[in-house]
């Protein structure tokens, strides 16, 4: 029996929440260098076109991004905004999500932030009851490098980590 009216809208809302979770899981995995979490956003046969810098099987592209990111910056953070979800059918959705990424670089040229603004254009598919990305295109809209002056940490400041030692993984609070 096919859902109608309010029930159908509620099912669609739950699908949208699951899709948002997939997109957020990818960037949490990248920011924390959690390969398993990052890969869990993609179906094993997914394709990623990463803005001209890498393309191919999304799991392999993701693993390579993690290898490149560690020496590229001392820290980075990603923000997802402006999510549009268009359902093609019950098990296929197309999304566009804006991304803002900041990567802190410290090298012979000083302390700088690489700022990237673009969009993720994804096709997600529900397989075996689970939404994951089947195809991803990263679109670059704006990027720049900013010189940075950093204020020293205050006593007791908590710094993020690029591993499972990050405070977000701790559940005993």
CATH names the topology as: Nuclear Transport Factor 2, Chain: A
Low-confidence stretches: none
Separation, N- and C-terminal Cα atoms: 45 Å
The helix count comes to 3
Beta-strand portion reads over 45%
Q: Write down the domain tally.
A: 1
- Would you tell me the overall average pLDDT? 93
Q: Percent helix among the residues?
A: 25-40%
Radius of gyration: 18 Å
The largest pleated sheet is described as: 6 strands, mixed
Topology:
Blueprint (H helix, E strand, L loop, with lengths): L4 H27 L3 H5 L2 E9 L3 E4 H15 L2 E15 L2 E16 L2 E18 L2 E18 L26
Parallel strand pairs: 1-6
Antiparallel strand pairs: 1-2, 3-4, 4-5, 5-6
How would you sum up this structure, described in words?
It is a single chain. The protein is an alpha+beta fold. The protein has a single domain (5-153), classed as Roll (Nuclear Transport Factor 2, Chain: A). It contains three helices and six strands, in the order H-H-E-E-H-E-E-E-E. The chain has helices spanning 5-31, 35-39, 58-72; strands at 42-50, 54-57, 75-89, 92-107, 110-127, 130-147. The protein has a six-stranded mixed β-sheet. It is globular and about 60 Å long.
Structure at a glance:
The protein is built from three helices and six strands; from the N terminus they run ααββαββββ. The chain is of the alpha+beta class and 173 residues long. β3 and β4 form a beta hairpin.
List keywords for this structure.
6 strands; globular; 3 helices; 6-stranded mixed sheet; 173 residues; Nuclear Transport Factor 2, Chain: A; alpha+beta
